[in-house]
Amino acid sequence: MKQMNVGRAKEIVDSAEMFYVTYEGTPVIIQHVDESAQMARIYSRTEPDNEREVPVLNLIEE
Q1: What pLDDT score was predicted for residue 27?
Q2: Exposure of 9 by Cβ count < 10 A (0-12 exposed, 13-18 middle, 19+ buried)?
């Protein structure tokens, strides 16, 4: 398990593969990465309508 960085978050967004990423212990999908702000738009796998912006550094790749 490791803390995410902007470059890796963008790789995950651009990949066709599915990666196991969590935010505060909840599995999430990264929808978009804002490199300049180092923020990611994510949503929970169980609540896809609940999108939010979070710091990339708070994402964990399992």
Answers
A1: 95
A2: buried
Cα→Cα distances 47→7, 29, 32, Å: 26, 10, 17
Which residues, including other chains, have CB under 8 Å from residue 31's CB and lie 6 or more apart?
A: 13, 40, 41, 42, 43, 51
- Per residue in 7-61, pLDDT (tens digit) is 999 999 999 888 999 999 999 999 999 999 999 999 998 999 999 999 999 999 9
Q: Are 58 and 24 in contact (CB under 8 A)?
A: yes
| 14: β partners | none
3-state secondary structure of 10: helix
